[in-house]
């Protein structure tokens, strides 16, 4: 039986991907190169450090570990300038409604995000109290596709992995849920999110009926 839903943040609850993209692009430009929106897809769900390494690789740029840390901080400062302007209207269609529906029928809810800025984002959009547990980039050491973030979510909620359904927009996230022995609803396109039990375009397409049929 399904007892809990675990939600990814970026791409599922809010579209912070566009802010990540703008900030990374600004950083790449400051280093004298650029990257495409297509390349940007590879950064979704991936940790900050790993994203920077991928981008530096695309630009053929080598940096010391200390320089990398400085660059990651610079990107995060630019990113947070945009996050700090976020409003509750930026919650993706159906997200708040589906969270409310889950809670109304007694399902537990958790956030399972790679982002170290999750709490700030939840506060900006005003939905912090809709989660029984928040597991983010500050609480885990192994990035998706490792299942650590989702397993920690199940543990915090006091449920078994097989009693959880994960909602994910990134390939790495779908893989993490599958590796954690959880059911997974992909948010996006079924061509991309192959391992998911069900793929929908957004949480506005999700219902309890679909959930219990997984
Ligand atoms: C998000 C984004 C990634 C980002 C990562 C780390 O993950 O999809 O692009 O690199 O978090 O974010 P931060 O730099 O804020 O710690 P998720 O797991 O919510 O999709
Ligand atoms: Mg995501």
UniProtKB/TrEMBL annotation:
Its cofactor is Mg(2+). One of its GO terms (biological process) is carbohydrate metabolic process. Pfam families: Hydrolase. One of its GO terms (molecular function) is beta-phosphoglucomutase activity. Mg(2+) binds at residues 8, 10, 168-169. Its EC number is 5.4.2.6. InterPro entries: B-phosphoglucomutase_hydrolase, Beta-PGM, Beta-PGM-like, HAD-like_sf, HAD-SF_hydro_IA, HAD_sf, PGP-like_dom2. Keywords: Carbohydrate metabolism, Isomerase, Magnesium, Metal-binding, Phosphoprotein. Binds 2 magnesium ions per subunit. Substrate binds at residues 8-10, 24, 43-48, 51, 75, 113-117, 144. The active site is at 8 (proton donor/acceptor), 10 (proton donor/acceptor). The record marks 113, 144 as: Important for catalytic activity and assists the phosphoryl transfer reaction to Asp8 by balancing charge and orienting the reacting groups. NCBIfam families: bPGM, HAD-SF-IA-v3, PGMB-YQAB-SF. PANTHER family: 6-PHOSPHOGLUCONATE PHOSPHATASE, HEXITOL PHOSPHATASE B. This is Beta-phosphoglucomutase. The lineage of its organism: Bacteria, Pseudomonadati, Bacteroidota, Sphingobacteriia, Sphingobacteriales. The gene is pgmB.
């Amino acid at each position: 039986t399904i007892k809990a839903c675990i939600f990814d943040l970026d791409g599922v609850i809010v579209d912070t991907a566009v802010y990540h993209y703008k900030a990374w692009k600004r950083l790449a430009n400051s280093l004298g190169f650029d990257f495409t929106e297509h390349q940007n897809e590879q950064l979704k769900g991936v940790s900050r450090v790993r994203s920077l390494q991928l981008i530096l690789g695309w630009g053929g740029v080598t940096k010391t570990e200390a320089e990398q840390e400085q660059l990651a901080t610079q990107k995060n400062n630019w990113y947070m300038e945009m996050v700090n302007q976020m409003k509750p209207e930026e919650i993706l269609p159906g997200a708040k409604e589906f969270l409310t529906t889950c809670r109304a029928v007694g399902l537990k809810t958790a956030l399972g995000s790679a982002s170290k800025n999750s709490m700030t984002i939840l506060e900006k959009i005003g939905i912090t109290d809709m989660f029984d547990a928040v597991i983010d980039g500050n609480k885990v050491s192994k990035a998706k596709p490792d299942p650590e973030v989702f397993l920690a979510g199940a543990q915090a909620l006091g449920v078994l992995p097989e009693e959880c359904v994960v909602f994910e927009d990134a390939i790495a996230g779908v893989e993490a849920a599958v590796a954690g022995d959880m059911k997974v609803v992909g948010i996006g396109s079924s061509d991309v999110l192959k391992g998911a039990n069900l793929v929908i375009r957004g949480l506005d397409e999700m219902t309890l009926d679909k959930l219990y049929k997984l």
